[in-house]
Specification:
about 95% helix
């Protein structure tokens, strides 16, 4: 009888793991779509306003460098 309970728990755990894996996959696909949209927005902005894009990149690089130097 203990073997049946253990097998049931194992099957439940596998089912739960499959559900979690599917949920993670769905979320990643949603984020990928968002990233593609954001990438297109960045490319459009860089074409329309190249100096602004360069200034933003320099500013972010400076901030990131300062944060990393303190770590």
């Amino acid at each position: 009888m203990a073997e049946n309970d253990g097998g049931g728990m194992g099957a439940d755990a596998r089912d739960k793991a499959r559900e979690v894996a599917q949920d993670v996959q769905d979320r990643l696909e949603g984020m990928r779509g968002y990233a593609e949209d954001a990438g297109e927005w960045v490319r459009t902005m860089a074409r329309d306003r190249p100096m602004t894009a360069i200034a933003v990149a320099v500013g972010l690089g400076f901030v990131f460098g300062r944060l990393m130097s303190r770590a």
